[in-house]
Amino acid sequence: MDNFIYLDTARVGRPSQTTFLAATDSFAMAAEEGGSAYFDRFLRQGLSDCPMWMQSRYYGLKSWRGIGGLKADLRSLIGGTDDLPVLLANRTAQLMELAARLFYPRCHNVLTCDLGWPAYQTILETAATRHAGCVTVLPLREMVFGGRATADEVVEAIVETYVGQNCDGLFLPAVSNLGVKLPIPEIVQRIEAVGIVRFVVVDGAQEFCHTATELASDYCDLYLAGCHKWLAGHHPMGVGFYGRRRSREFIDTVLASLVEAGIVDDPLLRFAEQIESGRTNTYKETVNLAGLFTGQAAVAEAIESNRPHANPAAREANRELVARAVSEAGWQAEEIDPELRSSILLARTERNSARQTDPAILRSVFRDRGVGLTAYADGRVRLSIPNAPMCDATLQQVGKVFESIVSQAD
After folding, report:
1. Per-residue model confidence (pLDDT) at position 281
2. Cβ within 8 Å of residue 297, ≥6 positions away
3. What's the whole-number mean pLDDT along residues 139-164?
4. Domains of the chain, earliest start first
5. pLDDT tens-digit series, residues 288-340
6. 173: helix, coil or strand?
7. Coil, strand, or helix at residue 241?
8. Are 246 and 27 in contact (CB under 8 A)?
9. Residue 354: partners with Cβ closer than 8 Å, 6 or more residues away
10. How many CB atoms within 10 Å of residue 266?
């Protein structure tokens, strides 16, 4: 469909032409070079260190400068210092496994909330049970959506619960999958003024390259993100950033022990460390490298376009326009306090037939009519608002699609 409108970046971003070329050229290089000495040179030093004929033939990989270059660009993108440690992994769950084991037994009681990603919550709770620790889950979802709490009220609830439950660790999403943006630096600062904070982990999967992130403010110990959502690197690749200098040696020590024991067993994590250290004789398996090259292309493009710092006003304006379009089409945009908003918008319908429709079917119906989004139970959908200004024709199409689905439900 020529007029397909993609509003599902919170699930997976659409790769740009730059990322697409990196993906196709990396596959072409693999087909022609395999694992040759030239490919090894490319992998370690980058395309600029290869023969000129390779540089011209695989121009889509021009931004690749080796593992060190990718990590340097990731630091730049997230506002980190030049010595900020960066972890790369094929599976983000392995980085969460590391985070959970960093909490316990260092912490006794970790505060989290019901806005977090369920799979991550499970990993955290499993680690707590293993070490006889505790997890305190603060119910914020109903408070934010049902009670329309302000950002100040949310922060106050988090601080009061943390202190009241004698917590000493904190695990929160910077932006939840439902679009709630939490002011993590302010929360940590408030808690540290009245309590003990031994370790802080931030789930930045929905924040990274979506809203501005600055790790230079030294507010967390470990920040977890990925490349396939708002960065739009296509191939999933987990990224972990150390935060505070106070915990770097501790994280290194625990990570080394978990890798040695096979508890954190991620091929790319191990491979990247070996490449940087020059220890290439201990590879245990073939590693999926696709995410490195598409991730590098997406990172380089994000830096060049100053994303995510560019045009926040345009994205907010788009959000208002989309909310109005779906509301006029018979859906209810679920609004929250402006300071808690992100570029993720929830909308729902009260039509019983739509509310009773299986989310996978409802999502397919939207796609069949030209809009890509995520559907949940009870007739609720999630839209990712783009940064580029939306024209009247696009907004009208969005409204017509939403209206047609309500009309069909009648």
Report:
1. 53
2. 18, 19, 21, 22, 23, 60, 61, 63, 64, 233
3. 95
4. 17-61 (no CATH), 66-304 (3.40.640.10), 311-409 (3.90.1150.10)
5. 999 999 999 999 999 998 877 777 888 899 999 999 999 999 999 998 999 99
6. strand
7. strand
8. no
9. 362, 379, 405, 406, 409
10. 22
Beta strands 238-242; 86-89: pairing state: antiparallel
Q: What is the DSSP letter of 333?
A: E
Reported as type and span, the H/E element at residue 239 is strand 238-242
Would you state the structure tokens that stand for residue 154, as one six-digit string?
Answer: 């949310």
Pairing, β 134-138 against β 109-113: parallel
Cα–Cα distances in angstroms (integers) from residue 101 to residues 87, 97, 266, 365, in the given order: 16, 6, 15, 42
Tokens (6 digits) for 352: 């019983």
pLDDT at 355: 83
Count of CA atoms in the C-beta half-sphere (13 A) of 366: 26
What is the token pair recorded at 330?
């018979």
Please say whether the beta carbons of 91 and 257 come within 8 A.
Answer: no
Q: Is the confidence at residue 392, as pLDDT, over 60?
A: yes
Provide the phi-psi class of 91: left if phi over 0, else alpha when psi is between -120 and 50, else beta: beta
Place of tokens 């939207």: 366
CB-based contact 77:232 (threshold 8 Å): no
* Residue 308, preceding peptide bond in cis (omega within 30° of 0): yes
DSSP conformation class of 145: I
